[in-house]
Amino acid sequence: MGRITVTSPSSPSAATRAASDWANGYAPAPETVKVAIKPRHGHFIAGRWVLPKAGRGEGSGYFPTINPATEAVLSEVAQGTEKDVDAAVSAARKALPAWAGLPGVERAKYLYRIARRVQERSRELAVLETLDSGKPIKESRDVDVPLVAAHFFYHAGWADKLAFAFPGRTPRPVGVCAQVIPWNFPLLMAAWKIAPALACGNTVVLKPAETTPLTALRLAEILEECALPAGVVNLVTGDGRTGAALACHAGVDKVAFTGSTDVGKKIARAAAARGTKLTLELGGKSPHIIFEDASLDQAIEGIVAGIYFNQGEVCCAGSRLFVQESIVDTVVRKLEGRMASLRVGDPMDKNTDVGAVNSRQQLETIRRYMALGGAEGATLHVPGAHAGDDPFGPPTNTLPRGAGFWCRPCFFTGVQPSHTIAREEIFGPVLSVLTFRTPEEAIQRANNTPYGLAAGVWTDKGSKIFDIAAKLKAGVVWCNTYNKFDPASPFGGYKESGFGREGGVQGLRAYVVLE
Amino acid sequence: MHARPTVDAVMAAERAATFTKRSIKASAKLAGLTLAVSMVDLTTLEGKDSPEKARSLCRKAVRPWERDVDVLGEALPHAAAVCVYPAMVRVCVDELRGRDPDAGVKVASVATGFPSGQFPLEVRLADTRRAVADGADEIDMVISRGAFLAGRLDEVAEEIREVKRACRRGDGSFAHLKVILETGELETLDHVRRASDLAIRAMAEVDEEAGVGGVGTADFIKTSTGKVQPAATMPVTLVMLEAIRDWYLETGRLVGMKPAGGIRTAKQALHYLVMVKETMNLGVAGFEHAGGNPWLTPAYFRFGASTLLNDLLRQIAWLKTGKYQAGYDFAEA
Lengths: 515, 333
Prior knowledge:
The complex is a heterodimer. By secondary structure, chain A is of the alpha/beta class. Chain A folds into two domains: about 40-280 and about 500-515, 3-Layer(aba) Sandwich (Aldehyde Dehydrogenase, Chain A, domain 1), CATH 3.40.605; about 285-485, Aldehyde Dehydrogenase, Chain A, domain 2. Chain A is built from 17 helices and 20 strands. Chain A has helices spanning about 15-25, 80-100, 105-120, 120-135, 135-160, 160-165, 185-200, 215-225, 240-245, 260-270, 295-310, 330-340, 360-375, 420-425, 440-445, 460-470, 505-510, and strands at about 40, 45, 50, 60-65, 75-80, 170-175, 175-180, 205, 235, 255-260, 275-280, 285-290, 320-325, 380, 410-415, 430-435, 455-460, 475-480, 500, 510-515. In chain A, strand 15 (about 410-415), helix 14 and strand 16 (about 430-435) form a beta-alpha-beta unit. In chain A, helix 3 (about 105-120) runs antiparallel to helix 5, helix 5 (about 135-160) packs parallel to helix 7 (about 185-200) and helix 11 (about 295-310) crosses helix 12 (about 330-340). The radius of gyration of chain A is 25 Å and the shape is globular. The termini of chain A are far apart. Chain B has a single domain, classed as TIM Barrel, CATH 3.20.20.70. In chain B, helix 8 packs across helix 10 (about 190-210). The termini of chain B are far apart.
C-alpha cells in the first residue's frame, strides 16, 4: 500500500496571527439598545409631570445633565425651587391617609408590580443608568438594576407582615419622608429609599442627585404605569439647594439621606432642631485586612474589585489595605498584575471594567487627593499604564478623543496612617496600602478612622475571622469576600459613616413608629 | 513566607465565572477560534482504538477542514498534536512522517499506566520509555492520586522525576512531559494548587540535573485524563494557571497548561482563552507576537479534546459565511 504524504496548506503564521490578534484586545462590543430621552424633564408631583414653578432669581429654570463619558448633554432637568418642594410635600401629605390606610397586602401588590416592571424594562434602565452616571454597562446590567428589582420584591414581602417584624408592637407609618440620594448608584439608592418607605405605609418626596436624575425620573414613569396612587411618590430634581429645601422642610416627618458626611452633618443639625426622624448613610474609609495565611489570589481579587467597582465611587469602597508585613512584596506584585488587566473605557462597551468618573468636579477631587498622596511621601502605582501615560487620560477606544472624565485604578504604597489619603474619603479608584505586624495592630489601625461603614478580612483561618470581625467597628464586615449586597442584609455605618440601617428587618425600623 | 498557598473556592469560582461574561465578537471571536484550533490536542483514548482510527486522527489534525480554503478563503492552522495510547504512537509517527519537526503536528502519548496509574513504577517507566522510543514528542503521565491523597507527597514528586528522566532521549533531548493531576479525584482547589506546585518543581529539578537552563523544557501540567468526572473546569484551570504564573515570576521558567476533558464547544474554548489572556499577561520577553503571553501559543497552552475541533470549525464557518454548516460537513476524526 502506497503512503500518501499528508501536508497542511496552512502557513505557520495562521496561528501566530490569531495569537497576536487575540492578545491585542477584544473587538468593540457595544450595548446596542437605544433609549429615547426627552429633551426636558419637569418634576413628578401628585402623579403628574409639572413644570418647575418660577423661583426668585438664581436657581430657577432648567439645567443640563451630561454623559460623563462624552460630556454630551443628555437632557435638561428642572431646578427645584422652594415652591416646587412645597408642592411636592403637600402632595405627599395629601396622599398619606389613604396610602397608610391601605391594607398591607394591597400595598404589596403595588410593590410587586413595580418590581416586575423594573425587570421588564431592565435593559432600558441599565443603558440609561450607564449614560447618565458613567458606570460600565456590565455593572448597571448585572448589579444595579437586578438589585433594584430585588429591593422592591423583598419589601413587597414585608408590607403585609410588619406585625411580625415587630412582635408585640403595632407599627404605624412615620408619615411624609424626604429622601435625598447620591449619584453613585442613582436608581439603586432610589429603590433603597422608596421600597421600605412604601412598604411601611409612608409617602415620599425624593430628590435624585444633580448629575444623575434620569433613571429616577424613568422610575417615576414606571410608578405611573403601575398606577401608584397620585402623591405617594413625588420627585423633585435640582442641586444641593433643592436638597436643602427638602431636608429642612417643616412638613416632613422623616429625612433619609445618603451622601457626603459634610452635608449629612448639616442635615443632622437642621433635623435636631425640629425633632424630625433621621437616618444618614454617609462616607467611609473602609479597611481591608489581609493576613499572611490568606488565599492570596482570591484576596487580591476581592480587594481589587472592592476599589475599582463603580470607579471607586462607592461609600463602602475598601480604600485602605492593611497587609501583614511578611507578604507585602507579594501582595504589591499581585495588585500590580491584577489591576493592569482592568479595561478602562467606554462604559457602554460590555467588556469595560472601569467606566467614566461621574463628573468633572469628582475627577478634580480625585486628582487633588492623588497629588496630595505624592506630596506627603507615598509612592503611586498605576498598573497597566505605560511610562509617560497620564492616569487621567482618556482611553484609546471609540469615544471622542479628549472628552470624558477618566481615572485608571491605582494604589499608593508607603502610606502612613497620618497621611491624608489614608484618612479622608477620596471616592475614586485609589487604594492606600499600609502594613501591620500583629492582629492587634491591624485592628487598631483599621479602627483608627472617623468612619465605620464596612471592612474586609482575608484569612484562611476561621477562628481569626470571628475574632477580628467582632473587634472591627464597621457596619458590615465581609470575610473572604467583598461588596456583597442583598436586600435582606442591613447596610449602614458607625461613627461619621452615619446611623440607621437600610435593608433587612432592621431597615424597616426607620420607616415605622411603634406603638 | 508563603510556603503553601491556599485557595478560597468561593472567590475562585466567582473569578472564573467573570471570564465567561466577556462579550467576544467579530474579529476577536475569529482570532480566538482560530487560535483554539491551533491548540487542540486531538485525542482518542479508547479500548477500541485501531491503527485506522489513529491514522484518520492524524489526517484530521493536519488538515482540520479539507474545504477551508474553498469556504473560508484561507487555510486554517493545524491542530497542535494528536494524543493516543502508546500502542498507536508508531502508527501516528509513520502517518505524520515528513512533517516539520518544530512547527508540525506533534504526537503525544499517554503513558505511565494511564488512566489510573495503579501499576508498579518500573512498569510505568517502561511504558514511558517505549512510547518515547517509538517517537512520541510528548508524554502525558498520570500521578498516583492515592499517594497524593494519603499525603505521600515525596513519593509523587519522585515518580514525576523518574518519568521525566525516562522522557530523555539518547541525544540528551527530552520528550515534553505533561503531568495529569486528575483534579476530579483531588477534589479541592487546595489540593489542585499543591499538586500543581509539586509537579512544576519536580519537573524543574530534572531539567536542572540535565543542565537545561533558560525557560526550561516546556513541560505541562494537565487537569484530567477525561476518564473521571468532573474533568477540566474553569476554577481548576485558573488555580493551575496561577501556580504556573507564580512559578514564572519566581524563577523565570515557563510551564504549559492543558485543560482536558469536558471542553466540547467553541464557546467554552473562548472562555478559557479569555482566562489565559487576562490571567497570564506577564509581558514575557520573546513572545511579543502573542502580547508577551506565551500561553497564547500552542507551545504553552493546549486543549485536550476530541469533539471540540469540529465545533470550532463550525463557528468559524458561520462567522465567515453567515451560514451554519451541517454537522456532516465536517469529517469525523
